[in-house]
């Protein structure tokens, strides 16, 4: 019936036809529950078998073809890790891995490599982990030759340029200075240190002083020890022919035949349980962040499958016990979780973490204890067991959803000495976990008497004191002030350093002329980053008195130090203030005194200073108190061209000198350009120098 005829019929129909009672509606069909949905079983996972061979130089190679897209990717695993960092140079391996990439090669800087790779949509990366280092590349098939060549150059001949080392270390200094800014990250960090011990490579923390001990030669030596063909597994996957790729790699690495002794085993974990309650006070938070745990096991442990299921029942997902009780029922926390984190080759951890409002801190930790005890004393329900096992089993498909994941997993098993079928053995073990298994492993491994509780929060806002749980051990979050390590010279580097120093002295007017300067006054103008103009007057009186007066748009600031103490005077917006020089400012002033060219250029006359070569035309001068500066010389003139140093607070400073002019028989710079952490920080222009005007201590110390 067309729409026109249907309308006509309605108009013509007798009214009485609509007065009759409508037929009774049929009962609606019941809406099926999601519980009634049936799913077919997942198809069995099949893992493609990569081709394996060893290059003539000893490097092991895995190749896996994938012609779906015109891409070629690669990953190299190097048997090393930050567990091999020397105790006094923590962070060395990470800096090495970073600068291996950013420092470029002898023929190209890292920045030039970045530009070239960007033009061809390629990438090469380097990283460091606890028990492995890696290098990776990604390329379009058409440009894979260029990318592979760059990958090889960086792996076999990195340059470790000093400017990139300085930049990388300064960024780590900044990260240390900010590490307590995010309270959510503190509990896990502190828990790991307590569980593994703060005196070993599994649990120690990197501080400013460790970074200050790291030099370019350390990076080179670390690289040479661990980056050699027989210590590397390389995997390549993508759109290529296996025989052709094998031939390409053989030719590419044919000239790299470095040999080293086999790498030793990673240090064992020797820590023992550290039960107790630990509190890191932070008065600026309204929540308490917590992490609870104990040492766990490895992936090889026979109980690992049952432990993962047990941990999932306890705290993984919205239906887990911790979430159901602490978040849903009690309303204490938005986030709470539990995990059994095993490692390949050393004990991992059992951890419970989350956050709660300050007032319910103690109650939340007590409720967690209750749930742990329930899991240890009563069998879980069949439904809990099924959901936890399904969650693990259904995730298997994501282990093999790309060639890169497949090959990476095969490589990891090879790297750590696991059998090829480990994952499928583990899969079968998960399927076989029973309720009895969960109860047994929870009783054996979730040990309340060995748990470490770490809380970060404001105890004044707690509803119940943490002492309800036991003795509370305070955690000191203070970040130790950075100290610059004194240079360690070999006889050869010391001799070369003194040669460079004498060359610089001669270029500036001679050592005797430098030594004749008893005082100096310098007027300058500074254009700070952001456009602010500052007028500055610096007065120096040998051997260690310094006064600085600044005129800023909003007032005046004066500072004085005798090298041991000092003061600050401010006249800002009509308000005058006077105070002793705060320790961080005093530390900066001491650094300025140390680095004053008239002082540091006479380092060979000061027994407290040490000089060593830091490059072909660079020397490092260090003091016993930890101050250190690297001075680069102009190759053609011998005049100092640049100073690089670590400022108090961790910033990396690079000061470039230019516009050298004659001042009473000495060469003095009339322009200085500053970089802080690799970024422009200001430019200083000297308008006038005066030498030997008869300044006295009273002139410098007189308060404004």
Task: Describe the structure in your own words.
This protein is of the alpha+beta class. The protein folds into three domains: 51-165 and 204-252, Cytochrome Bc1 Complex, Chain A, domain 1, CATH 3.30.830; 276-474, Cytochrome Bc1 Complex, Chain A, domain 1; 491-701, Lipoprotein localisation LolA/LolB/LppX (outer membrane lipoprotein receptor (LolB), chain A, Clam). The chain contains 21 helices and 25 strands. The strands form three sheets. It has a 13-stranded antiparallel beta sheet with strand order 18-17-16-15-14-13-25-24-23-22-21-20-19. A hairpin with a 4-residue loop joins strand 4 (123-128) and strand 5 (133-140). Helix 10 crosses helix 16 (435-445). The radius of gyration is 34 Å and the shape is globular. The termini are far apart. Mean pLDDT is 89; it is low at 1-21.
Strand content: 25-35%
Q: How many structural domains are formed by the residues?
A: 3
* Overall CATH architecture of the largest domain: Clam
Overall 3D shape: globular
CATH topology category name of the largest domain:
outer membrane lipoprotein receptor (LolB), chain A
Question: What's the name of the CATH homologous superfamily of the largest domain?
Answer: Lipoprotein localisation LolA/LolB/LppX
N- and C-termini, Cα separation: 103 Å
At the first level of CATH, the class of the largest domain is: Mainly Beta
Class computed from helices, strands and strand pairing: alpha+beta
Low-pLDDT sequence parts: 1-21
- Helix proportion range: 25-40%
Total E-strand runs: 25
Strand order of the largest sheet: 18-17-16-15-14-13-25-24-23-22-21-20-19
Calculate Rg over CA atoms: 34 Å
**How can the largest sheet be summarized?**
13 strands, antiparallel
What average pLDDT do the residues reach?
Answer: 89
Helix count, DSSP H or I runs of 4 or more residues: 21
């Amino acid at each position: 019936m067309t729409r026109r005829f249907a309308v006509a019929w309605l108009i013509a129909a007798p009214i009485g036809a609509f007065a009759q009672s409508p037929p009774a509606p049929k009962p609606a069909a019941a809406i099926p529950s999601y519980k009634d949905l049936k799913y077919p079983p997942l198809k069995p996972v099949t893992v493609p078998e990569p081709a394996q061979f060893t290059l003539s130089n000893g490097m092991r190679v895995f190749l896996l073809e994938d012609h779906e897209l015109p891409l070629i990717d690669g990953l190299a695993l190097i048997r090393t890790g930050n567990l091999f960092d020397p105790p006094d140079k923590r962070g060395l391996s990470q800096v090495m891995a970073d600068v291996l990439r950013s420092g470029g090669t002898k023929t190209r800087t890292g920045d030039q490599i970045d530009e070239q790779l960007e033009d061809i949509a390629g990438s090469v990366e380097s990283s460091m982990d606890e028990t492995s280092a890696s290098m990776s590349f990604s390329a379009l098939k058409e440009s894979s030759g260029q990318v592979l060549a760059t990958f090889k150059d960086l792996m076999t001949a990195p340059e470790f340029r000093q400017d990139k080392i300085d930049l990388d270390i300064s960024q780590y200094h900044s990260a240390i200075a900010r590490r307590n800014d995010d309270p959510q990250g503190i509990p896990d960090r502190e828990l790991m240190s307590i569980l593994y011990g703060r005196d070993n490579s599994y649990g120690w923390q990197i501080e400013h002083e460790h970074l200050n001990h790291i030099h370019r030669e350390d990076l080179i030596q670390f690289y040479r020890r661990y980056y050699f063909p027989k210590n590397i597994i390389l995997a390549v996957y993508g759109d290529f022919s296996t025989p052709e790729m094998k031939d390409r790699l053989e030719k590419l690495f044919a000239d790299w035949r470095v040999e080293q002794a086999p790498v030793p085993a990673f240090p064992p974990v020797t820590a023992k349980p550290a039960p107790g309650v630990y509190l890191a006070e932070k008065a600026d938070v309204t929540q308490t962040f917590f992490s609870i745990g104990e040492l766990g096991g490895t992936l090889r442990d026979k109980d690992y499958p049952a432990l993962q299921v047990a941990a999932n029942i306890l705290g993984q997902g919205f239906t887990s016990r911790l979430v159901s009780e602490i978040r849903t029922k009690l309303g204490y926390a938005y986030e709470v979780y539990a995990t059994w984190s095993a490692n390949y080759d050393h004990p991992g951890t059992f951890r419970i973490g989350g956050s709660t409002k300050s007032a319910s801190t103690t109650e939340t930790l007590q409720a967690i204890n209750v749930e742990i005890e329930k899991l240890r004393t009563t069998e879980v329900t069949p439904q809990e067991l099924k959901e936890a096992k399904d969650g693990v089993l259904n995730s298997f498909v994501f282990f093999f959803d790309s060639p890169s994941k497949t090959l990476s997993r095969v490589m990891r098993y090879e790297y750590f000495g696991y059998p090829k079928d480990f994952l499928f053995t583990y899969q079968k073990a998960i399927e076989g976990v029973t309720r009895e298994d969960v109860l047994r492993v929870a009783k054996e491994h979730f040990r309340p008497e060995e748990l470490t509780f770490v809380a970060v929060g404001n105890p004044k806002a707690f509803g119940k004191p943490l002492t309800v749980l036991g003795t509370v051990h305070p955690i000191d979050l203070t970040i130790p002030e950075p100290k610059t390590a004194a240079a360690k010279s070999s006889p050869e580097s010391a001799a070369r350093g003194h040669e460079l120093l004498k060359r610089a002295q001669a270029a500036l007017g001679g050592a005797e002329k430098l030594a004749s300067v008893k005082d100096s006054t310098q007027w300058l103008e500074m254009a700070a980053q952001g456009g602010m103009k500052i007028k500055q007057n610096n007065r120096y009186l040998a051997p260690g008195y310094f006064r600085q007066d600044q005129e800023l748009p909003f007032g005046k600031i004066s500072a004085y130090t005798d090298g041991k103490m000092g003061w600050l005077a401010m006249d800002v917006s009509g308000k005058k203030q006077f105070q002793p020089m705060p320790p961080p400012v005093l530390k900066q002033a001491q650094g300025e005194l140390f680095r004053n060219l008239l002082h540091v250029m006479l380092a060979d006359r000061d027994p407290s200073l040490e000089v060593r070569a830091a490059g072909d035309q660079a020397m490092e001068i260090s003091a016993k108190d930890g101050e250190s500066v690297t001075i680069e010389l102009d190759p053609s003139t011998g005049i100092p061209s640049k100073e690089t140093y670590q400022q108090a607070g961790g910033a990396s400073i690079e000061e470039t000198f230019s516009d050298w002019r004659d001042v009473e028989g000495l060469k003095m710079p009339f322009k200085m350009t500053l970089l802080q952490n690799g970024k422009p920080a200001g430019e200083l222009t000297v308008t006038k120098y005066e030498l030997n005007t008869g300044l006295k201590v009273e002139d410098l110390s007189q308060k404004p």
